[in-house]
């Protein structure tokens, strides 16, 4: 996925929890990834519009202003970011939320609570990281 030699892959994290944003950011930066954070779906769409390249998106489902489902639908309808891998990171445990998220275009689903190894494993499936 990292087409530009020498460029670090860029991950956008959209979660209304500052603790989750900080933990995931810290975990990914340890694997030489650039991280952009957003507080909700609206903020994430704005950050996407200001960022020339995003290689992966991690999104919560339950956020104010625009939830993760609506955000994913917006991204999948985008010419620029329609093919960017999306990982849902959510406290939603029901199979219904998982199936809905995957059916509208998410590529993976991680349930909270989670650990850094699980995040790294899922991210590594889409990006070339150690």
Please outline the helices and strands.
Blueprint: E1 10-14, H1 18-29, E2 34-38, H2 41-50, E3 56-59, H3 68-76, E4 86-90, H4 95-103, E5 108-111, H5 116-126
Parallel strand pairs: 1-2, 1-3, 3-4, 4-5
Helix pairs in contact: 2-3
Q: What features would you describe in this structure?
A:
- The protein has a five-stranded parallel β-sheet with strand order 2-1-3-4-5, sandwiched between helices.
- The chain has one domain: Response regulator (Rossmann fold).
- 39% of the residues lie in helices and 18% in strands.
- The protein has helices at 18-29, 41-50, 68-76, 95-103, 116-126; strands spanning 10-14, 34-38, 56-59, 86-90, 108-111.
- The longest helix is centred in the N-terminal third of the chain and has 12 residues, at 18-29.
- The model has no long low-confidence stretch (mean pLDDT 92).
- The protein is of the alpha/beta class.
- It is globular and about 40 Å long.
- Helix 1 links the parallel strand 1 (10-14) and strand 2 (34-38).
Widest β-sheet, arrangement of strands: 2-1-3-4-5
CATH architectural group: 3-Layer(aba) Sandwich
Q: Globular, elongated, flat, extended or rod-shaped: what is the shape?
A: globular
Structural class: alpha/beta
Q: Write the element-wise H/E pattern from the N-terminal end onward.
A: EHEHEHEHEH
- Average pLDDT reading: 92
CATH class: Alpha Beta
Strand content: 15-25%
Regions with little confidence, pLDDT below 50 for 5+ residues: none
Let me know the number of strands: 5
Rg from alpha-carbon coordinates: 13 Å
Determine the CATH superfamily: Response regulator
The fold-level CATH name is: Rossmann fold
Task: Specify the helix fraction band.
Answer: 25-40%
Sheet of most strands = 5 strands, parallel
Domain count: the total is: 1
- Count of alpha and pi helical runs: 5
Distance between the termini: 14 Å
């Amino acid at each position: 996925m990292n087409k530009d030699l020498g460029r670090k892959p860029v991950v956008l994290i959209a979660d209304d929890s500052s603790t989750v944003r900080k933990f995931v950011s810290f975990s990914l930066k340890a694997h030489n990834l650039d991280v952009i954070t957003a507080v909700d779906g609206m903020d994430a769409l704005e950050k996407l519009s200001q960022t020339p390249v995003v290689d992966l998106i991690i999104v919560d489902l339950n956020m104010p202003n625009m939830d993760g489902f609506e955000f994913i639908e917006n991204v999948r309808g985008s010419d620029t970011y329609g093919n960017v891998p999306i990982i849902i990171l959510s406290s939603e445990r029901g199979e219904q939320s998982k199936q809905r998220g995957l059916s509208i275009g998410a590529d993976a689903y991680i349930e909270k609570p989670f650990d850094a190894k699980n995040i790294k494993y899922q991210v590594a499936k889409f990006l070339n990281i150690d």
